[in-house]
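User: Could you go from structure to sequence for me? I need the amino acid at each position, not a summary. Structure tokens:
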């Protein structure tokens, strides 16, 4: 265990132990070394280890018996984070599943999609079924440039748009491009999406966590980190729900301009904003330095694997070359159907329908919390498909609460799962339970039921 130096060592020791228990590196029932042994192993004072054991025992991670020793407690809880993070195919979407990441799959517009598919099958010439342009179908790239300009304030000509297999592949391609340009590290948000870190790692880039505060990513910390690229979610930070302030957006764009850096913008749920007009994409502020990424995963369905990136032409050319060597391009029929869907207005209709339903579901979440857990707070609700729920103090400590939630059959993810730093940069160190709650996939009735079960 690396503890570093100075006054933070005790905290780092506690965080390291907590994490080891949480991810199962220290399994339930494991006896820990005596405080004297561990202190000698780590080269720290015995008091520091005793304090750490006492703190984690109070929090429910450890159990101890006077004079007999200290053991890892049975921190039984909802399904452990899977290697695939929030986005892997799994058992999600059950009636009492409040974890984030999914839209309502029952809202997929099957009839309109089938009609578009029939039109496309009639219209496509034989030659269209050959190997596609790895940058994407020209009709779709043009339709996306228009859509993203109109809805998200993205500044793009069609030749700056590239079709990808979701945001996930866009990030993989961009990671490979940055790596080929000599970069070995990239900044990510803390708290942030574990998926970003995993995708970057697969391309050989090490993620450097940078704290997020109430205004967004700390650009001062970013500048001090010595990286040349950053992956960010400025319109609705994942998972905190913060929308970057205008000053922070300008500072981030300024950082990229000053150091010739690259910002990868993940606009994973930018289509959904409830209380006012959507915040435009950061890319519009600095198109030369920001690569915008988005997908149909939230608006239509993640199973389509349809996404896009928009960036400077040299980046698009390099990313397309990577895609060519990866899969020779995206399915022509799916691209053509999406292009038809966009051109016919069906996509806008789908967005309007989802927006209306998801707003009602968000309101149902806020209402259920006010009713069943008075004193709780909800934040990050202006946009997207999830919110941060902070429960009143009486629900802590977190491990005991999560164990009780699992016993009640409610699947939840705590905000702490998305943090890399031992000390929360977002003020979440007051002992209150903070959950990242996805609400879009549940009906208002199901939300009320799950919340009632959860807080009982
Ligand atoms: C923050 C974030 N980034 C990326 C993704 C993955 O998106 P896609 O399905 O477009 O690959 C998700 C999916 O939920 C997400 O929440």
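Assistant: Here is the amino acid at each position, in order:
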């Amino acid at each position: 265990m690396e503890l570093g130096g100075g006054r933070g060592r005790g905290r780092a020791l506690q965080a390291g132990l907590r994490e080891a228990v949480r991810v199962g590196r220290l399994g339930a029932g494991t006896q820990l070394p005596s405080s004297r042994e561990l202190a000698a192993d780590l080269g720290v004072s015995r008091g520091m280890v005793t304090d750490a054991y006492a703190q984690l025992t109070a929090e429910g991670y450890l159990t101890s018996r006077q004079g007999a020793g200290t053991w890892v407690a049975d921190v039984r809880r909802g399904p452990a984070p899977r290697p695939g993070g929030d986005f892997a195919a799994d058992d999600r979407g059950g009636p009492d599943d409040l974890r984030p990441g999914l839209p309502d799959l029952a809202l997929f517009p099957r009839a309109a999609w089938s009609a578009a598919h029939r039109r496309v099958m009639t219209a496509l010439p034989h030659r269209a079924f050959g190997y596609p342009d790895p940058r994407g179908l020209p009709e779709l790239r043009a339709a996306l440039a228009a859509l993203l300009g109109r809805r998200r304030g993205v500044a793009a000509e069609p030749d700056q748009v590239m079709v990808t297999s979701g945001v996930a592949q866009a990030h993989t391609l961009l990671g490979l491009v940055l790596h080929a340009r000599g970069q070995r590290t990239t900044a990510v948000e803390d708290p942030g999406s574990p998926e970003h870190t995993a995708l970057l790692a697969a391309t050989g880039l090490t993620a450097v966590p940078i704290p997020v505060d109430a205004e967004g990513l700390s650009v001062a910390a970013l500048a001090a980190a010595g990286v040349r690229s950053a992956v960010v979610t400025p319109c609705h930070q994942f998972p905190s729900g913060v929308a970057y302030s205008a000053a922070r957006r300008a500072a981030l764009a300024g950082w990229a301009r000053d150091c010739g850096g690259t910002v990868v913008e993940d606009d994973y749920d930018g289509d959904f904003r409830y209380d006012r007009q959507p915040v435009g994409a950061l890319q519009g502020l600095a198109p030369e330095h920001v690569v915008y990424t988005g997908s149909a995963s939230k608006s239509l369905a993640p199973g389509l694997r349809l996404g896009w990136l928009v960036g400077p032409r040299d980046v698009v050319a390099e990313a397309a070359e990577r895609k060519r060597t990866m899969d020779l391009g995206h399915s022509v029929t799916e691209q053509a159907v999406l292009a038809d869907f966009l051109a016919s207005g069906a996509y806008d209709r789908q967005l309007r329908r989802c927006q209306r339903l998801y707003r009602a579901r968000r309101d149902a979440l806020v209402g259920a919390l006010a009713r069943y857990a008075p004193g709780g707070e909800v934040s990050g609700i202006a946009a997207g498909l999830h919110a941060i729920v902070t429960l009143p103090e009486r629900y802590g400590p977190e491990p005991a609460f999560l164990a009780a939630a699992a016993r009640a059959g409610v699947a939840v993810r705590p905000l702490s799962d998305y943090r890399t730093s031992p000390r929360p940069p977002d003020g979440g160190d007051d002992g209150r339970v903070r959950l990242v709650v996805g609400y879009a996939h549940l009906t208002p009735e199901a939300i009320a039921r799950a919340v009632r079960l959860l807080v009982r």
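One structural detail worth keeping in mind: The longest helix spans residues 346-372.
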